Amino acid sequence: MAEPTGILILGVGNLLRKDEGVGVQVVQRLQKLRLPRGVQVVDGGTAGVGLLDLLEGYERVVIIDAADMGLEPGSVVKFRPEATMFKTPDFRLSLHSIDVNSVLELARLLSKSLPEIAIIGVQPKDTGWGTDLSIEVLAEMHHIVDLVLEEIGYCRT
Amino acid sequence: MKDLHLDIHYVTRVEGHANIVVNTKDGTIEDLRLEIIEAPRFFEGFIRGKHYYDVAQIACRICGICAVGHTTASLRATEDALGITPSEQTVLLRRLIVDAETFQSHILHDYFLVAPDFFGVGSVIPLASSHPAVVQRALRLKKLANDICAVIGGRPVHPISMVPGGFTRIPTADELKGLKKRLQEAIPDLEATVALFKTLPIPAFENPTEYIALKSEAEYAFYDGDIASSEGWRIKPQQYRDHIKERIVQHSTCKHVGAVRPSIMVGALARFNHNYKQLHPMAAAAARELGLTGPSTNPFMISVAQLVEVVHAVENSLMLIDELLRRGLKEEPLAKPTKYGRGVGAVEVPRGLLIHDYAYDEQFRVKECNLIIPTTMNMANIENDMRVLVPKLLAAAKPEQEIALTLEMLTRAYDPCISCSVHMLNVRFVK
């Protein structure tokens, strides 16, 4: 099998559920930038278990997703999965609402080799029906994009 | 007879949340409800005013698993409304990606949601520990199906190349040959899946209902057909409102749906019951091997019908690829509108009949729309099944825990898609 290579920036979420779609909204902005070679920007939507396939083949992955971190709406935190405690109810796994952590756990149990992963979590205010981001999250979009670019070592000139 | 008071919050391993509430007194059901928390009711609000070219791109975001289904139904509704006639090549490609989604969704449902019950584990995560080869097989099959979606739809999730009147990008002959090879190589995995599911004990329970599915003389219908009922009526999709009736129920944000009967079933078992004589040979053999004969009135057999449909979808995909290669793939201009008005797209998605109904104005913008998802159509019947099943379980003196699990399994068998979900991470930082 080929050596893993390159960086993946992956935004996940549901565009029709307001702040829940923040990950996808971020990648849609990133897709307008000219990023270095070897950097792929992917809209993962609500891929669910399909996330496993999307992660394959990369050396590093940056995932952007809405996350309930118990913080103020609009809070943005970059973290490594190993450094956190994911509060998923016992074996609460469902086809659509499978979260990134469950996918990573599945990969670990199946001894799949995983890339180095950084997660950028955004605390949502509103995950009701709609395509607009709340003002608290919208105000942080530039910061989130900057965090992603910092993670991949890209300088905005 | 003991009184039963079940209030199961969050049925696990279905999309979103559901509560099952059952209260009995002296063997009589006092209260029984499947409480649904969410439904895609606001879709209509999103697409009103949108130009016809943009509608399907919003529809495809409703659901990650049924993205192809929503896109296809949306496109067909738009094309019906605007007098757009897609080419034969477009129709063949759409049928291929619809088969791929059926394949992908059913495999996921059967392996990840149904099988854990029979292995006595809570979900696929412990199953990955105890039976890794089984889960690896499921993921291999799912990956193949997803890759077909990526080749045809331009993206593994939320297809991007499917537009009114055609495709913005068509696959190459080499890509199709590659998929054909992989489909052929997947047959041993399919056989192993049938062999596994043959050993899983399906609960014995019969409860006849009204089965509704697309019907076509040409084939086991997914992409195109009339809407047919086991009660005998058969109509063009445009007439669905005369026969399929939605009603509001107090305990659910999801409407209930009836036709001749107050509750109906759509989905793999309804399709099988209507169309089993049109299964391809390997699928027909799989049905025999799995003990599924038509028509079946056991809702627990939905999962078995799904597996039969997976085999059929693989056989059908191979036939479609051969046809596309024989014809030769050609770049084609998109077919254009010839009028504006109202149109209906009725398509079989993995969970059942899906209806998109749009009315366009003279600027080709949506002025009205209606959407009925298959899970909405099944809700009343799940309750109907529970009303018949609970007294039987009580009469057999089953313990409360077993009754609760059986009702959860029944709900899961329908493969319901209860919310277009919120799936965000739930994180607490370790100090």
Question: Secondary-structure blueprint of this entry?
Answer:
The complex is a heterodimer of chains A (157) and B (431).
Chain A: E1 7-12, H1 22-30, E2 39-45, H2 51-55, E3 60-68, E4 76-79, E5 84-86, H3 100-109, E6 116-122, H4 135-138, H5 141-151
Parallel strand pairs in A: 1-2, 1-3, 3-6
Antiparallel strand pairs in A: 4-6
Chain B: E1 5-8, E2 18-25, E3 28-36, H1 43-47, H2 52-59, H3 67-82, H4 88-119, H5 124-130, H6 132-153, E4 162-163, E5 166-167, H7 173-185, H8 187-198, E6 210-215, E7 226-229, E8 234-235, H9 240-243, E9 245-247, E10 256-258, E11 264-265, H10 268-275, H11 281-289, H12 302-327, E12 342-349, E13 352-360, E14 366-372, H13 374-395, H14 400-413, E15 425-429
Helix pairs in contact in B: 2-3, 3-4, 4-6, 4-12, 5-6, 6-7, 7-12, 8-12, 10-12, 11-12, 13-14
Protein traits:
heterodimer; A: 157 residues; alpha/beta; 5 helices; 23% strand; B: 431 residues; alpha+beta; 3-stranded antiparallel β-sheet; 17% strand
How does this model look, in words?
The complex is a heterodimer of chains A (157) and B (431). Chain A is an alpha/beta fold. Chain A has helices at residues 22-30, 51-55, 100-109, 135-138, 141-151, and strands at residues 7-12, 39-45, 60-68, 76-79, 84-86, 116-122. In chain A, strands 2-1-3-6-4 form a five-stranded mixed β-sheet. In chain A, helix 1 links the parallel strand 1 (7-12) and strand 2. Chain A starts with 6 loop residues before the first strand and ends in a 6-residue tail after the last helix. Chain B is globular, with a radius of gyration of 21 Å. Chain B starts with a strand and ends with a strand. Helix content of chain B is 46%, strand content 17%. The relative contact order of chain B is 0.19. The longest helix of chain B has 32 residues, at 88-119. Classes of the chains: A alpha/beta (157), B alpha+beta (431). At the A-B interface, strand 2, helix 2, strand 3, strand 5 and helix 3 of A face helix 1, helix 4, helix 5, helix 6 and strand 15 of B. Strand 5 (84-86) of chain A pairs antiparallel with strand 15 (425-429) of chain B.
